[in-house]
Amino acid sequence: MINIPKGTKDVLPNQSYKWQYIEETAREVARAFNFKEVRTPVFEHTELFQRGVGETTDVVNKEMYTFEDKGGRSITLKPEGTAGVVRLFLENGLASSPLPVKAYYITPAFRYERPQAGRLREFHQFGLEVFGSASPETDAEVILAAFSFLNKLGLKGVKLQLNSIGCPICRNQYNTALKNYFRPHLDEMCPTCRSRFDKNPLRILDCKEEGCKKYTSGAPEILDYLCDDCKNHFEKVKSLLDSAGVEYTVNSRIVRGLDYYTKTVFEFVSTEIGAQGTVCGGGRYDGLIGQLGGNPLPAIGFAAGIERILLLMENTSAGFPEEQKPLIYIAGMDETSRNLAFKTALELRGKGVCAEVDHMGRSVKAQFKYADKISAKFVAVIGENEVKTKTVNLKKMSDGTSKEVKIEDLSKYLLQEEN
Ligand code: ATP
Ligand code: MG
């Protein structure tokens, strides 16, 4: 037996309906907000992520699945969705299409992390991006799309945390203040934080080491350093959320894991699935498109972790719709009636009815038992008589009642009963 790789998961036939429900809900929300789907390759040139995610991030430093392909190129499995979508946007000249461009994706992502509840090596994200708009309305719309998605799934206990990390101008002053604050403690901090100190001190606030957290709690707050433009932008985003009736808390410790964020950053956090409580994170990244070689253009987006959402839904009362079940099982007795069962099922399937027949050469009694096990809603038995009359006795499994229905009327009858 060969086992599944560490940190990956199978989706079993009796679980996939949950995934489909989450994905369908994502698509529904994306459609309502007028986002269109994009798909990018599972692997890209390593450099895209080095430049697009940032050299000071854990993702690039420690977590990427990087390998050399047979042509000697350095290739990386995508660790997140945004960099690929930005590449798609630039490479296909979408910057010259009417702005803003609104795109969404559902994708697997790969990070070499220590697997635990809510933390996998292959995981999945639903994310969306808006390119070309700098307005606070866009920030609010992106946050509201995430909110709407989580809300539609019934995740009421997820809290929105909001922050602004400013623009390169005000961040510069803040970085100086941060460095002055951390400098005396640097010797006691982790090597990663020591290297962040020079390159991107803001990221120290994102450190998960207990030894570093002790110092980050007393650090100066970015919100006290915002320039007027960033301050006004943040105020407008908050007031738009207020008028949409969405609750949030401002948390100056939210800086996000990736280097490219500017101004608004946010997370949706749950306290119900343990340490890995962030189900969705996002923010504005006005610098990224320029950094990846395009003409600078503002952008904003989020990514939600599907496994964490699934975990949360299973741990709370959010609930899923019913699993798919056959609407009808058609049992056959002898060869002629089995043939008719087979043909009838095929016709019903063509009309959108989920129909099942025997594949195992079972007796009628055993077929009935099986139909019950797979939770077929109706069962019809076809025998000599039914072949002649072209009529079946349709048994409703939930209450045992039955009804004579002409075979040609079956689809109409069943589809009515399904709703
Ligand atoms: P964390 O701080 O939990 O490591 P992150 O900041 O690295 O999260 P992002 O890069 O913002 O995460 O990814 C967006 C979302 O993707 C996260 O909020 C989370 O729901 C999900 N996610 C990230 N990494 C993993 C993982 N290894 N396994 C499962 N889900 C993940
Ligand atoms: Mg991470």
Question: Mind sketching the topology for me?
Answer:
Blueprint: H1 16-32, E1 36-37, E2 43-45, H2 46-52, H3 58-63, E3 66-68, E4 74-77, H4 82-91, E5 101-110, E6 122-131, H5 136-152, E7 159-164, H6 168-182, H7 191-199, H8 210-216, H9 228-243, E8 249-250, E9 262-269, E10 278-284, H10 288-291, E11 299-305, H11 306-315, E12 328-332, H12 335-350, E13 355-357, H13 364-373, E14 378-382, H14 384-389, E15 391-396, E16 402-406, H15 410-418
Helix pairs in contact: 1-5, 5-9
This protein binds adenosine-5'-triphosphate and magnesium ion.
Adenosine-5'-triphosphate (ATP) binds at residues 80, 111, 113, 118-120, 123, 125, 257-258, 276, 278-281, 303, 305, 307-308.
General description of the model:
- Helices cover 38% and strands 21% of the residues.
- The chain has helices at 16-32, 46-52, 58-63, 82-91, 136-152, 168-182, 191-199, 210-216, 228-243, 288-291, 306-315, 335-350, 364-373, 384-389, 410-418; strands at 36-37, 43-45, 66-68, 74-77, 101-110, 122-131, 159-164, 249-250, 262-269, 278-284, 299-305, 328-332, 355-357, 378-382, 391-396, 402-406.
- The strands form three sheets. An eight-stranded mixed β-sheet has the order 1-5-6-11-10-9-7-8. Strands 13-12-14-15-16 form a five-stranded mixed β-sheet, sandwiched between helices.
- The two termini are 44 Å apart.
- The model has no long low-confidence stretch (mean pLDDT 95).
- The structure holds adenosine-5'-triphosphate and magnesium ion.
- Residues 58, 257 line the site of magnesium ion.
Regions with pLDDT < 50 over 5+ consecutive residues? none
What do the pLDDT scores average to? 95
**Main sheet properties:** 8 strands, mixed
Named once each, the bound ligands are:
adenosine-5'-triphosphate, magnesium ion
Structural class: alpha+beta
Strand content: 15-25%
What is the spatial order of strands in the main beta sheet? 1-5-6-11-10-9-7-8
Tally of helical runs: 15
Anisotropy-based shape: elongated
Percentage of helical residues? Answer: 25-40%
Radius of gyration from CA coordinates? 27 Å
